[in-house]
Amino acid sequence: MEERRYRSASGAPIALRRRQHSASCRELAVRCPRLQLRSLSAVTSAVWLVAYGLFVLSENSMVLSAAIFITLIGLIIYLHFVKIDQESLLVIGSLGIQVTSSYASGKESTTFIEMGQVKDVVINEAVHMQKVIYYLCILLQDPGDPQGVSEVVPLFQSSKPRLDCLIEVYRSCQEILQQRKTAPQ
Predict the structure, then answer these.
(1) According to the UniProt entry, where is the signal peptide (predicted)?
(2) pLDDT tens-digit profile of 27-85?
(3) Which domain does 54 fall in, by range?
(4) Do 67 and 152 have their domain in common?
(5) By the number of CB atoms within 10 A of the CB, which of 46, 118, 151, 154 ranks highest?
């Protein structure tokens, strides 16, 4: 297993792990930074300070209880549905591509795309907030038109790796896709 350090589009440090299981099977995982205690403390303190201010004005202790309850529920929702720790791509030349997102709470979301549906894997660009960002996506083949594309599936939406990291993932995917195209049917 090989691990390299990169940066995301926002400048946050990320790590790319490459694991080659066989010549036609490769796993690529992008790890995002863990939840920062400093940002968690800042948000919690801000909510509780506002609640304390409202308590002083209203002299109602339910305000403080509600602040604690809202903070805990918000943290659980954030960890279970929003904060993604790792996004991985498992490319198996004979079967397909599996995309997995691992959340901070331990929950995983997995999508599998059969290799027969995959037309290509490409790096695309988009203009976002006056800057160009790059993203990796899978082009799905249109069943009615062999030359057409029916859907574009973006990858690594949470970690948003920069171009240098995307190029390495792209090359790994293309190696396996080329093996599949050159192999006898």
Answers:
(1) none
(2) 999 999 877 778 878 888 888 888 888 888 888 888 888 888 888 898 889 888 889 99
(3) 37-81
(4) no
(5) 118
- Domain co-membership, 58 together with 139: no
107 and 65 both lie in a single domain: no
User: Do 120 and 64 belong together in one domain?
Assistant: no
Instruction: Check the CA dihedral 138-144-147-149 and report its sign.
Output: negative
- Same domain as 140, residue 106: yes
Q: Which amino acid is at 35?
A: L
